[in-house]
Each structure stands twice: as structure tokens, then as C-alpha cells.
Amino acid sequence: MGVMKERVVPQFPNLDHENELRSQGYELIAGIDEVGRGALAGPVVASAVILPHRADVAWFELVKDSKQLSSRQRESLFELISKDAVAVGIGIVPSQVIDSVNILKATKLAMLQAVEKLPRQPHFLIIDRVTLSQCPIPQRGITRGDRLCLSIACASIIAKVTRDRMMEKFDQIYPGYGFVQHKGYGTGVHMSSLRKLGPSPIHRLYFAPVRNIITGQSSGSLASAHSRPFASFDFEPLAPCHSEGAKRPKNLTQDKSGP
After folding, report:
1. Strand, helix or coil at 33?
2. For 143, left (φ over 0), alpha (ψ -120 to 50), or beta?
């Protein structure tokens, strides 16, 4: 009897999924990922990236999941991706919307925004973990996509750097929370400052750690903590996903694997 080999996860993201889809006739393939889903403060940010067909781009081999890179590496790759990609789109959903619709829906809203912001209409979407039922464009959710697919890994870098820069600006607007260090995630320093200062206008009031602190300190409404002015970063309401995104390129063969 043969020995079943364990599936080996590539050390670096590659273009296997993109090349498979191109062999089926899909030309513009957008990788999508989000950052900030587990934070206690700040927006959830998503990005969609369409890479060039060329496989000889020098910096491709430097790309990893954004969590595996240093801030300096991410900043450098951010500039390279922005310069060389066929298209880049970014979606931003703030804490007030996250509190209103829940984090999963907010994450999908950010992803839909990112697709809509692409200057080129994609023919197929490959997405880290989830699928977007509201979007008519053919798609596939890929587990650990940010570690497997180069397009998704690039999207994770664009989203991470974009969100980190926003949190650094928020640190200046709402000092004392240490946003520049922890970027809104639930570190010990963050929780300590939250107990001391109470929530800022960018905290997610219905996330349990924040909610527990608010209810422990006051019997007032959670919503009242968002009544203070919020520093907007040009958040736009959700626009429909590319309405013609479901149209396939001419002579496209049927994708039998499905989304």
C-alpha cells in the first residue's frame, strides 16, 4: 500500500492558485484580505490586489503573510506592490459600523469596498477564508490564503500598512491609549489605559473587553461613548460590488471547481 503524504504548506506564498485560474481563462484575479478583525479599537481594513502576469518580478519572493514581516519590510513591500500591481483597492469600515452590524459583516463590507475601489474590474476573486455572497464576481475562499497565495499575501500587506498608518494618526488625536504601539489590539497596556481613560470614539463598544469595562464603571448606555466627535478618515458607505464583475472574459472556460 502506498504511503499518504502530508500536504506541505509552502514556505512562501506562490502563484499556484492564480496560475490555475488563468489556465481556465480568468485574466484579472484579485486577492483579498483584511486586517484588524480582532482589534478592540479602530477600523477593519481590507485590500484587493491584482498582480501582473509576470512571474519574474524580483520582489515576489520577498512577500509573506503581513504578520510574518517586520514593519520596515511591510512598508517597503507596500510601495513596491502599489507601484507594480495592475490594480489595488482599499476598503475601510470604522468602529461605529462594526458595532452596528458585527465584525464578520463589517469585514465583508470592507472587502466589498476594496473590490469596488479597484480601478480594473476583476474576473475572479480569491479571498482569505471567507466568500462574499453579495458579490456576483466568481470567487473562492481559501483557508490560510495569506500564506498560500501571493495575491492574498500582497493584499494583507496593503491592508496592514494602511491600518497601521491610520492607528498612528489616531494616537495623535486620542493620546494616552498607546495606539501607535499596539494598533488597537487588546494588550495589557491598552487594557490598563482603557480602564483609566474610558473608551475613545474609535473603540468597539460591543466587543466584550471594552463592554465589560464600560458596564463596570457606569450604568450609562454603551452608545453614549460614541457621542464624542469621531476623527473620520473619509469612510464611504458601501457601494455595490462591480455590477458587471460576473461577466467572464471572452472564450472563458467553465470553472468546474466553483467558488
Report:
1. strand
2. beta
Is the dihedral angle over the CA atoms 130, 119, 159, 64 positive or is it negative?
A: positive
Strand order in the sheet with 139-142: 87-93, 44-50, 29-35, 124-128, 139-142
What's the CATH code, domain 16-165?
3.30.420.10
Which grid coordinates belong to 254? 467553465
What are 69-94's pLDDT values in tens digits? 999 999 999 999 999 999 999 999 99
Q: pLDDT tens across 217-231, in order?
A: 765 555 555 555 555
* C-alpha to C-alpha distance for 48 and 31, rounded to whole angstroms: 5
Backbone φ and ψ for 200, nearest 5 degrees, come out as -90, 170
| 77: amino acid identity, one letter | L
3-state secondary structure of 159: helix
Provide the residue type at 112 as one letter: L
The domains of the chain are located at 16-165, 170-226
Q: How far apart (Å, rounded) are the C-alpha atoms in residues 26 and 28?
A: 6
Would you state the pLDDT for residue 167? 98
- State the virtual CA torsion across 37, 52, 165, 224 in degrees, nearest 10: -40
